[in-house]
């Protein structure tokens, strides 16, 4: 049975999400604020977290950052703020999906299933794909979900890992922004091209001297090409 943590200071919201989650046979735990959620995550493992943004004591974004220091667990954020800036900020903190209030509980559970399916597929590492790849000083452990830049482990959000791993598994292939949105974020994701561009920018920042391994294809998208002339790996 999958375990879900629901974090919201509104009891009615928690009750509605619990009802639908238990109907789909989730084991549900509730927290009333971010501090309580962080404490629970220190002591327990969850398969997915549903978390509100605006809460007393510790807001959802801050709680997400603290939880990410301990666990790599999918997080869906709930918020009354639906502006693109707010959504992109959420993804920069490492969340997996963003649902605007008021929301349909059925849609939320559909998103839960989609996020869990993508998380499970990412952890499987692709089965027939080589699990540890090295491109010069850039080392990528697909199974362990770790990236090393010249021997130093890079700190990335789960979505940055997903994006890099998808690019690497399709090394040398031109991938459109729409294709990346579909494969990395899922068919039901609300975002647009700027979501991909924002994450590529953050990802390149974490790759340091190997940022040029991700090549921009003007008017189209991106590809992972460690053998391009600008890459440090091509000269090693």
Automatic annotation (TrEMBL):
Its function?
May play the central regulatory role in sporulation. It may be an element of the effector pathway responsible for the activation of sporulation genes in response to nutritional stress. Spo0A may act in concert with spo0H (a sigma factor) to control the expression of some genes that are critical to the sporulation process.
User: What protein name is recorded for this chain?
Assistant: Stage 0 sporulation protein A homolog
| Top-level taxon of origin | Bacteria
What Gene Ontology cellular component terms go with this record? Answer: cytosol; protein-DNA complex
Q: Which residues carry this modification: 4-aspartylphosphate?
A: 52
Q: Carries keyword Phosphoprotein?
A: yes
UniProt domain OmpR/PhoB-type: residue ranges: 130-226
- Supply the Gene3D superfamilies for this chain: 3.40.50.2300, 6.10.250.690, Winged helix-like DNA-binding domain superfamily/Winged helix DNA-binding domain (1.10.10.10)
Protein species of origin: Ruminococcus callidus ATCC 27760
Keywords carried by this UniProt record:
DNA-binding, Phosphoprotein, Transcription, Transcription regulation, Two-component regulatory system
Among PROSITE patterns, the record links this protein to: OMPR_PHOB (PS51755), RESPONSE_REGULATORY (PS50110)
The UniProt record lists the Response regulatory domain at 3-116
Pfam families xref list = Response_reg, Trans_reg_C
The family database entries (InterPro entries) matched by this protein are listed as: CheY-like_superfamily, OmpR/PhoB-type_DNA-bd, Sig_transdc_resp-reg_receiver, WalR-like, WH-like_DNA-bd_sf
Alphabetical list of SMART domains matching this protein: REC, Trans_reg_C
Q: Biological process (GO) annotations? A: regulation of DNA-templated transcription
Q: Which GO terms describe its molecular function?
A: phosphorelay response regulator activity; transcription cis-regulatory region binding
